[in-house]
């Protein structure tokens, strides 16, 4: 039986008892019940009163009820103290150790100045910008697929699959662990942000970045079945001037595809709720 049901039952029983006692006293006082007849009092007889023992103390219902020991809470396991943080310039190995359980690609973690790189990405994302220099190594290795029909180029939907692995790796990290590591590294991130001239705290920047990404993601236009491209130079561009005029972040998310964006949106909502 759940303890909540047991407590509720006890409280209900006490309430019923109190209600019955209250109703009996109230009805007698108000004349709703016949009072019991007074017993006949015999004529007094003068006698020498015998010494009487002290009357037994009358115990109240509360005193007659044996005290029920309170259920002691389960002892909590002592939380391990947070590890001491290294100096910012020497923090790469420490950060790699914290991220080891996430099974990220080794070449991601082989980079130098991980905290400084991460805070730069955070500051740019909060402003709605993509830090190409810091994240250039994350560009998918597969070439951007394009369907060619005669002299025309069209967007190939298979290009969205290039981003499946990135979203899979990100959403595989439990949101609670991600927030815990973020909070652990916050002092180092504050120092790195200070070197960039950024005085806002990392938590504020992260929440702003999440809001920016989610707002952009939820406002993306639905692409038609066929999206024509042009190639004015080495790179492709949207033939539709309205699509081409979108910010870089919006165009990146369009290339990721609606399904990947929806999964990213849900994961960011989990992070935001924990923050």
Q: From the alpha carbons, calculate the radius of gyration and give it in angstroms.
A: 37 Å
Q: Report the average pLDDT across residues.
A: 75
Tell me how many strands there are: 4
Strands side by side in the biggest sheet = 1-2-3-4
Secondary structure: helix percent? 40-55%
Outline: elongated
Major β-sheet annotation: 4 strands, antiparallel
Poorly predicted runs of 5 or more residues: 1-47, 55-70
Q: What is the CA-CA span between the terminal residues?
A: 35 Å
Helix count, DSSP H or I runs of 4 or more residues = 13
The SSE order reads HHHHHHEEHHHHEEHHH
Q: Look at the helices and sheets and give the structural class.
A: mainly alpha
Walk me through this protein's architecture.
By secondary structure, this protein is mainly alpha-helical. The protein has a domain at 88-274. 50% of the residues lie in helices and 5% in strands. The chain is built from 13 helices and four strands. A four-stranded antiparallel sheet has the order 1-2-3-4. β1 (146-149) and β2 form a beta hairpin. α8 packs across α13 and α10 (202-218) runs antiparallel to α13 (258-274). It starts with a helix and ends with a helix. Mean pLDDT is 75; it is low at 1-47 and 55-70.
């Amino acid at each position: 039986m759940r303890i909540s049901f047991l407590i509720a039952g006890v409280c209900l029983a006490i309430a019923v008892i109190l209600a019955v006692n209250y109703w009996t006293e109230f009805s007698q006082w108000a004349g709703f019940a016949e009072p019991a007849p007074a017993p006949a009092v015999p004529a007094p007889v003068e006698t020498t009163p015998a010494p009487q023992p002290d009357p037994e103390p009358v115990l109240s219902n509360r005193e007659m009820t044996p005290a029920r020991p309170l259920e002691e809470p389960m002892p909590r396991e002592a939380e391990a103290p947070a590890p001491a943080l290294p100096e910012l310039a020497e923090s790469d190995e420490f950060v790699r150790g914290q991220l080891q359980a996430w099974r990220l690609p080794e070449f991601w973690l082989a980079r130098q100045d991980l905290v400084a790189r991460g805070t730069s990405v955070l500051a740019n994302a909060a402003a709605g910008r993509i830090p190409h220099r810091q994240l250039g190594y994350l560009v998918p290795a597969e070439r951007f697929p394009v369907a060619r029909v005669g002299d025309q180029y069209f967007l190939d939907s298979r290009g969205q699959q290039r981003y499946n692995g990135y979203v899979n790796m990100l959403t595989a990290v439990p949101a609670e662990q991600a927030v815990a590591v973020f909070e652990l590294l916050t002092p180092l991130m504050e120092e790195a942000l200070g070197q960039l001239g950024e005085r806002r705290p990392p938590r504020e920047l992260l929440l702003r970045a999440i809001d920016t990404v989610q707002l952009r993601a939820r406002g993306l236009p639905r692409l038609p079945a066929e999206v024509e491209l042009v190639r004015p130079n080495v790179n492709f561009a949207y033939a539709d001037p309205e699509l081409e005029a979108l910010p870089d972040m919006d165009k990146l998310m369009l290339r990721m595809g609606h399904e990947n964006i929806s999964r990213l949106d849900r994961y960011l909502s989990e992070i935001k709720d924990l923050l």
